[in-house]
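Q: what does this look like with iron/sulfur cluster bound?
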Amino acid sequence: MDGTAVQDRIYTSARDLYRTKWEWDAVYWGTHCVDCYPGNCPMRVYVRDGLVWREEQSGTFQTVEPGVPDFNPMGCQKGASWSQSLYGPDRLLYPLKRVGERGSGKWNRVNWDEALSDIADKMIDAIEAGGPQSIAHEGTPEMATVIPTNKFFSVLGGNGLDLNGSINDFSIGLYETFGRFSPVSSADDWFHSEVVLIWHMNPIYTRIPFYHFIAEARYNGAEVINISPDVNPSHVHADMQVPINGGSDAAFGLSLVQVILEEGLANWKFIREQTDLGFLVRTDTGRYLRQADVEGSGPEDQLYQWVPGKGARKADRGNIFLNGVEIALEGTYRVELADGSSVDVRPACDILRERLDARFTPELQQAITGVHPETVRAIARKCATKRTNIMLGYNACKFYHGDLMERAQALLLAVTGNWGKKGTGVRCWASGMHDGAFIAVNKPGPGAANTETVLSGRDAAIAMMKASDPTMTTEIAVKKLGQLSMKFQRSGGGPGSMSSGGERGADEAPNDSLSTPPAFWWYWQAGYRERWNTPGWGDESLPRTFDEYFNEALDKGWWQGMDFPRPEEPPRVLIECGGNMLRRTRGGKTALLPTLWPKLDLIVSIDFRISQTGLYSDYVLPAAQHYEKIGFHIPTPHLMNLTFSDRAAKPAGEARNEWQIYHALFEKMAERARERGLTHYTDATGQERTFAALPKAYSMNGFLLDEERLADEQIRDSALAGTLPMGTSLRTLRDKGHVRFIDWGLSPMALAQASPIKPNETHVPFRDHTERGMPFPTYSRRAQFYIDHEWFLEAGEELPTYKPNPDMGGDYPLGMTSGHNRWSIHAMNQANWVILGTHRGEPDVVVNSDDAAARGVKDGDRVRVFNDVSSFVTRARVAPNVKPGQLISYNGWAGFQYPEWSGANEIEPGMVKWIGFAGGYGHLNHLGAEWQPVPAERWTRCDFAREER
Amino acid sequence: MKVARLNGELADPAAPAWGGAEAVSITLGPVPIGAQPTAYIREAWAGRSYGTTGAATLAAASDGERLYLRLEWPDGATPNGEFQDAVAAMFPAGGDAPVATMGDHDRPVELWFWENGRGPLRLTSRGPGVVRKEAADGVAARGDLAGGRWSVVLSGPKPAAGKPVGVAVWDGSNDERAGLAAVSQEWLQLELA
Amino acid sequence: MTTTEAKTRQLAWVYDLNKCIGCQTCSVACKVLWTRDEGEKHQWWMSVNTMPGLGTPKGWEDMGGGFDPETGKPRPGHQPTRGEFGGGFDYNYQEVFYGGTAGKAHLEPQGPREGRWAMNWDEDQGAGEWPNSYYFYLPRQCNHCSNPVCMSACATGALSRTNDGLVLRDEEVCMGDRFCMEACPYKKIYFNYDRHVAQQCIGCFPRIEAGVAPACVRQCPGRAVFIGDLEDEESSVHKLVKTWKVAMPLKAEAGTGPNVYYVPPLSPHRLNDDMSIDTETPRIPPEYLESLFGPGVHGALNVLKGEMETVRAGGASEILTTLIAYKWQELLGPFTVDPATLDRSNGGA
Ligand code: SF4
Ligand code: SF4
Ligand code: SF4
């Protein structure tokens, strides 16, 4: 008799146990409106007894393009356990006030009134001492956070640090080439690719909701090639793994180009039209031949091409198509100049080829990259003949010479004609489209009429811009307007951002905030000057020191209005809301605590949890979590949908949403100012601001405090702006959860897509360039590979080239690399108990087995990682797949997960490539979120040793 | 054996009142491997010894309302953390159920079951480990480990008349559970005072 | 074997290991749905491991169980211990955030570090040597076997097969004897030390009953999992497993008749010593794959490669079209109901 024979009952009751586990009484739409990019996964949030119980992907996308897989079900493990951080042990429920030293971890629970009174007083003190610009915040792209925060700083007149300048998700090399860094195909367009080069990306970790399009493209015939020093997780579904020496990618990319040109496989027509490689360069100066050279005067950016048999012709700045004219890509030609002399000129392509042949043949590159010459040839031939897509993440740009890598990648696409058609291009990030989100909070008042005023103001400003130069595209006009308004801000109060609707009436409160590149803040306020000038840590091939370039940039006024806070105007208050400066900043506590922190009289962290920065703050204020407020995910061309997140439950504990917090703070400031007998203050632009007017100006007379109404107007304003279907409202989103955008709107990043949105097709950027001949927003109005800016010439970087990684951090045998981990959105999910169960539950660095053995380190051992900057203690995960000489510290662990709360960023020197300070040259002029100096830390030199506990 | 009529905290195995009860030693032996209910158990335990607790001491008492059975036996090796020491008192639940196999398919026995760290259970057993949980019906238990010996009091409503009792002991440190027990080789008649 | 329900279909899962990215969304989805209560913190009915590796529970491949292929008799197995599963750690949240330690305490699992293990402890370590190291991801759940040794090993008869071919436990009957845990060759049964019952994947049967795909399937962002009735010749699972034979069970030699199948993983080419590419040799040793998926794995990989060549050359492939699953709902078999449309305010009753 076996045990199975005794079954004699129906196990109804036991089954009911599980049936009743799967119960809920309400369902809401939700997503994770944080800097999870691209994210946007629509979820259903299931609520039981007023508390969020769990979430599940909605799976509600329709097929976009027939013959292409749909987007369902999106999502990831973080999203599938987001609910578990709502009521978990890491949830912040009450305002906390620091007692004891900063960072002592000692808090008193206080009530909101007490917290806000003290904060208001300190903010008024700061305004009195240093103006509102001494109150700063660091950006975040989370819409539900950035909009109320930016509004607060606009009404206050405070200073925002440009987010993208801090985190450096800025593909500098793409920007240098295309005049914007943000071409983004929709993820389903990846399915059209025939060659997928995963190159400085690890999509198996970082594109969980979208990775399937790569796997499915492979089943559809694509070859997947993974290029990385380590046999990284994305090798798993690749056909080819290219183990490349760390930071040598530019040489590899240039060698691919060399083969393609050498073997005659290039798309010559594409090169001639789309790029500046057919533009003439003077052999004497290395500068482009300009109209002033030839005619004695004229616009300095009027450049030339050579038509064999006819001579030099002015390159058309308004359209890049050649309409059958053959321009030369080779040869040396003689041109008469206005002064009667003559000069030899060569198409940039000719110079490029000479340099490629001299330095970057497959055989020569092998010494730099370690990649076998035949591998280079094989890949080059594939790229030349197939629709090729470079899966580029935000890794290359974090190398010191990352711009050179990206310029080489862009060049590969250029010579193979791989942009502007399906299945091609290079992947970056872009946002925009939900213009109404910003219009609604910046327009003169609620209602559609006010929206129309803003919209017509925008249109008029653009029309005016374009009138000054008929060759100007809308994108260029919008950028120029943005740059002008930035410059005006500090020097006398021009109109704020375009979306604010231009001029304001005399009785309205000012509504302009400053947004400055953080590089100046670091240089003057946080002690980075010394690091940036450390010999060996920067580019050793330069003739001048870092400071010489820095001072020249300032003297030339390239950063006018941006180059502060100067040493004499220290910041006094830092408000973190969505940011996390101590975790993010390269150098972390090591850099900031001794330099910046003592200057700050007040540090406030507004968050739903205590972050690393929160631990070193004076106040931590509990914010509503993402399922507790209405929000929209950052829209992205990856998905082309506005994704909605509803208020599924009341904020836990005493948490409040950001609008309420900031409004209450302004009310408190008005109250305290009145009690202190203060009426007004003057901002950095010389405008007067009245304390008493702050709360109303902030809330637009209460309008912005009504979550439902605000969300509805934001959606309706996007519909009015033409980016959502007419008639779309909050009700539509509550019903459908997500709506596909129908147009780009007017944000620079969206316009940068330079493609029409087609309702039944995948999105691929740059079709306006390839199909309509629209010029690029660069100096040369082409994809620009020859940059004759004086600094680029001085550095030998006028053309894409390869330069070795500097020894950032000192002379040590290992290079530290990073990349997003699999387990968190930055540090967001690190303390979620479910997520902690999906890995070792503590941070580690991944090291090669032989490197570990050489140091007597076994898997799981405690190690200290060190260099000249600092050190941190963690565990070693020993793996054979790491390249010998490489140490990987995946990004996102919170500092408080490491001993002494010191994470990997402590050993990063936070170097900035000097060339980022260049300006005064077409697209190389400051542009918010784009052109500015950015930190580099990949391949920081380091070593590690066993650490006894 | 006689069920002593006693007053005191009989549910407590250390209660002084137990001094007044007769204690008998009951010889235990392993449930035969061939009687084990599943092929898996028979295969896995064919070469392993189990049911190694050779004897337990039983005392019985009643306060007029409830029947208390106090069992005492030496603790085995250090627990492995997975299985716990346990004990049961067995009563025939219809017919002449075999005690050495903890009943069989047609002749069940009733178990008052206690396991270290786990509340008392009332079970019906139709063979070694072939058990069903029943409503507790007032069955209670309490166990103490002292001086290397377990003493456990199992109790339940006093039966109307005397009845046979058997004992099963499991040594958790030897992975004993279910039918892998040391059991009485014959019923012992309880006589109510 | 007596069951009270006549089996009318056999549910089967097919995991496409060329789409699985090891993201653990399936694991997390399952956990958040089913195992958040008392005694369930360490339980991962669904888990994903990097292979080769020791996985979960640590070293499960060497823990025996199943049936002896020669004699057909059940093979003794090791009962995985709490430590071998690991995980379910407690953390010092309070101390770190509020304890005033000024960095002296950092957020970390409590308890001894030595010998610690967890569900996904050896993530992305793999085997081989750089630059030819290799690994892939293997999601595992209860296989809802047709010849479930867990069920036949159980003394109490707590396990039974449903008319969908799911192996379910009556937790009221389960005595926590854990013979099932010993006997299961896949070691996918967990013990609830608080409630004193064993627990395992329930096949999301309440969802199945409502026409909703299991959480692991429906929530897989990799679109890597199919579910369906293996006996339905029109189903994707039937075609992949039976018709095209591109999916096979894990360790079928254990004789339990598992109903979870895998499309085996392709891998990038190996590199020669001079770093040139060796297009002949796959990176993952075929013998290793055979140890997991049996000898049929070679044929399956050849079929896949052949189909991929066909498609690259411009041809069409029904197999690859199926695996692409142009419409997500194709993965869900008959279970396409959107759960958000259901009224479950009272257990669906
Ligand atoms: S966290 Fe991001 S990727 Fe994950 S489900 Fe949410 S939005 Fe999607
Ligand atoms: S959710 Fe899908 S892709 Fe992710 S680990 Fe599970 S099976 Fe693999
Ligand atoms: S996998 Fe194990 S637990 Fe699941 S049915 Fe098969 S033998 Fe039983």
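The CA atoms of residues 400 and 913 of chain A lie 6 Å apart. Chain A has a mean pLDDT of 94.
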